[in-house]
Amino acid sequence: MRKRMEERRNLSPADDTASFDTSESVQDRYLVRKIDLRLLPILTLLYLLSFLDRTNIGNAKILGLATVLKLSAPAYNTSLALYFVAYVIFEVPANVLKRFDPQVWLPTLTLVWGIVSLCQGLVKNQAGLLGVRFLLGATEAGLFPGVVYVFSVYYLRRERRARVAIFFGGAALAGAFGGILAFAIGKMNGIGGRQGWQWIFILEGLLTILVSLFAYFVVPTWSYKAKFLTEPERERLLARLDKDSDPAHKESFQWVYVKQAFTDHIVWCYALLFHGYAFVLYSLSLFLPTIIAELGFASWQAQLLTVPPNTLAALSIAMTVWLSVRYDRRAIFIIIAAAVAIVGYIVLLTATKPGAQYVGVHLAAAGVYTGNALVLSWPGENVAGQTKRAVAVAMQITFGDIGAIAGVLIYRPNFASHEYRKPHIIAIGYLLFSSVVAAYLWFWLSRENKRKAAAQQSKTLGASDSIEERQRLGDHHVLYRYVY
């Protein structure tokens, strides 16, 4: 099958461009729907569980975790930071290992982190919690880049935005789902000699383990040997991918492509953009129950009150991504999302009544989650060359999660006065920084598209559109167009 595709490319190289007509036939739409039904439910569920297992410590905290384990004042924040330290350390190795068959790799990751998550409910002291949180970060590091890579071998560039957003929507759903679960599980306090916060980790860890076993039978393998597709469907899928970008042909690893990623300032901009958004994403998701409780609500009320803002965030992601796809724009919606979040934080800072402040929580959650959903899929659409794209995604997540480390350390006890006033102000600064980076990307990418179009029309660049030339130049090829 691959040989026949190579023959077709050799016979008609002029048709093999990044700007070909991608209008869909009825067969294409049926094929994409079939892929959606196989990939999106299970992969979104895995990410939901991943986000649930990394953030349920926020629900456990207000049920007495810190008191029982006798955590020192900064130890809780340190435990959160250690998760992201491990995530950053193991992100690049995970990006290499993701080349393993996803049908085995992704469920195995889920199984291992489910066991580690369960162990959080068995820790007896501060040292145990710190160690388990580090292991949780190490075991979860491979899921997000692995899934994004799987999307790249099944979907066209323009199709990935919505799929990554749906996948990331699992994070918002995890917040809503986690609040309800924490409220219900918290009532198990005392059963089996364990406290409610312990049961949160144990039961949610068991849920992850059970889903991981099911995932071995559902998560698909690589597109060129996917058994849920017929041979004609596989051929059509690979032909679509080959015309659209570069996932359909095998690219040998070369250090020059790694260098291309590290020396491309736009790749660093994607990393800086997520750095700003990761600060607010994880500080908000991990401290949301505490922030709501600080408004004057009881712990059980705070658990339930995390549900509405997270639900709104999921709806906001769906609506904004639909608009982004419809108008084929990215930066403007990222900036608008940041503006909505900033308004939310300002309301939290200035309002004097809990009800009004709770409205601010909704706005902050909607803006933060929506912006992240758009930010995280941007390099996958705009970076060409398999190795360069893999490194770019790793750089974005790695450098971005350094922002997450800063976020969980800033929301520490000695900054908790006046309902986290100082951390909220710093969060606004990070959102403004991300807006500036998004605006720069908007300007630079649109200018590059115009430059390439003019060069192509005047044939001043004279670049060949052969497979080898496109692979060598990647997204800098004259035929390649950026999404901005």
TrEMBL record:
PROSITE patterns named among the record's database cross-references: MFS
A Pfam family recorded for this sequence: MFS_1
Domain Major facilitator superfamily (MFS) profile: 39-450
Keywords from the UniProt entry: Membrane, Transmembrane, Transmembrane helix, Transport
Annotated compartments: Membrane
Transmembrane segments: 35-52, 72-92, 104-123, 135-157, 164-185, 197-219, 267-292, 304-325, 332-352, 358-378, 390-411, 423-445
Compositionally skewed regions (Basic and acidic residues) per UniProt: 1-10
Topology of this chain in the membrane: Multi-pass membrane protein
Entry superkingdom: Eukaryota
Region (Disordered), start-end ranges: 1-20
MF (Gene Ontology): transmembrane transporter activity
Listed InterPro entries: MFS, MFS_dom, MFS_trans_sf
GO cellular component entries: membrane
PANTHER family in the cross-refs: PERMEASE-RELATED (PTHR43791), TRANSPORTER, PUTATIVE (AFU_ORTHOLOGUE AFUA_6G11320)-RELATED (PTHR43791:SF22)
Protein name (Swiss-Prot/TrEMBL): MFS general substrate transporter
Species this chain originates from: Gymnopus androsaceus JB14
